[in-house]
Design brief:
By secondary structure, the protein is mainly alpha-helical. About 80% of the residues lie in helices and about 0% in strands. The chain has 15 helices and no strands. Helix 5 packs across helix 15. The N terminus is likely disordered.
Length: about 400
């Protein structure tokens, strides 16, 4: 009897680059409506500034509630692709419902549901990339994923603002809905892991997570990372205004100087992970990033451009190592659940960050705000370093 042909592993095009492209567009869709919130929620629907802010907050709340649940269910099912397709399909349909909504309470209810389905799609997609990544390519894969996420977030708002100006406040919602439906169709091309996945019971998945307490470390770093980003995004434009940058376009350019290296250098961070492991880049990046944040409140407008480039480069060294740690530390049977917990931590940090930034600004001014943010990043790194630097280079 002739031997069965060996199973062929799909190439990086379908296991890394295609998922990264889907993640980039998903993040682009999520920030596309932000610039037009005033015209849509306040001017068109008669809502308040709080209502417009709540449009963002309720989505983060949905991430916190549903990211772990979808991870558990995806692990239990033993499959990834149906959850990605279903999440993007439902999210696209709900985006297309937005223009028909006439009341703010109904809008926020739909936003919560849409956030729940969005995180089903992109969090499970991250777990799928992790399933396919081997030891040799894990760092590069996580770097590409991190770069795609940040680049999508960074370009969504400015393009959405231009589209709102040209076509009206509802145009970004219609485009995002259509793009999510396209993502759902393209997701049929995603490959499931080549080896059949077991279907463990939920109690076994939870027991596996409890048996791996080291997973708390990357979740803590991601929480601090997103918290400081949320704080920065609320405080930095105000600081620029105090420095004389009254033009929103000027403030946008300064944010671009931060976001561009933040996104584009993450694949290079993947190379550092493959050479040194994830722990040392994570600690070093957190310390440099914290120092840069502390320096923002002490820096005049003339030197801010260079500092923003350096700060973005330091931030790029933080996310891929934390993501790689989750992949290495998690049991393959519970990788979706671990990714859900990781995204829960990040979403919670991003939800708290703007509130903390507003409190710090009102309490102690700009220097206190940026110093607090930087000390949070450095303090976590210094607290964890004596323990995690003793971990082996390969954590699995």
């Amino acid at each position: 009897m002739p031997a069965s042909p060996p199973l062929t592993h799909p190439g990086r095009g379908r296991t890394v680059w295609l998922p990264a492209a889907l993640l980039l567009v998903a993040m682009f869709n999520l920030t596309l409506p932000v610039a037009g919130l005033k015209e849509w929620v306040i001017d068109r629907m008669g809502g308040s500034v709080t209502d417009a802010a709540s449009f963002l907050s309720v989505e983060m709340a949905a991430y916190v509630v549903f990211a772990p649940l979808w991870g558990l269910l995806a692990d239990r099912s033993g499959r990834r692709r149906p959850w990605v397709i279903g999440g993007f399909l439902a999210s696209g349909a709900l985006y297309l419902v937005y223009p028909t909504i006439a009341s703010v309470p109904a809008l926020l209810a739909v936003r919560f549901a849409q956030g729940a389905f969005s995180v089903m799609g992109w969090s499970t997609l991250m777990a799928l990339v992790a399933d396919h990544a081997d030891d040799a390519s894990r760092g590069r894969s996580m770097g590409v994923v991190g770069g795609a996420l940040i680049l999508g977030i960074g370009i969504g708002a400015p393009i959405g603002g231009a589209l709102s100006h040209a076509r009206g406040a509802l145009a970004p919602l219609e485009l995002a809905g259509a793009l999510f439906l396209v993502l759902a169709a393209v997701a049929f091309l995603l490959p499931e892991p080549a080896s059949p996945r077991a279907r463990p019971a939920l109690r076994d998945i939870l027991a596996t997570l409890r048996g791996r307490p080291r997973l708390v470390v990357p979740c803590l770093f991601y929480f601090a990372d997103r918290l400081t980003i949320g704080l920065f995004l609320i405080a930095f434009p105000l600081y620029l205004g105090a420095q004389g940058a009254v033009d929103p376009a000027v403030r946008g350019r300064y944010l671009g100087l931060f976001l561009l290296p933040f996104a584009l250098l993450q694949p290079l961070t993947g190379r550092l992970i493959e050479r040194f492991g994830p722990v040392r880049p994570l600690v070093a990046g957190s310390l440099l990033y914290g120092l840069g944040l502390c320096a923002v409140g002490l820096t005049g407008r003339g030197a801010l451009a260079g500092l923003m480039l350096a700060l973005g480069a330091a931030a790029a060294v933080m996310f891929p190592p934390a993501l790689a740690m989750v992949v290495e530390l998690a049991d393959p049977r519970a990788r979706g659940s671990a990714m859900g917990a990781f995204n829960l931590a990040g979403s919670l940090g991003f939800a708290i960050g703007p509130w903390l930034g507003a409190w710090a600004q009102n309490t102690g001014g700009f220097r206190f705000t940026f110093s607090l943010s930087g000390c949070l990043a450095m303090g976590l790194a210094l607290l964890c370093a004596p323990w995690i630097l003793r971990w082996p280079r390969r954590l699995a």
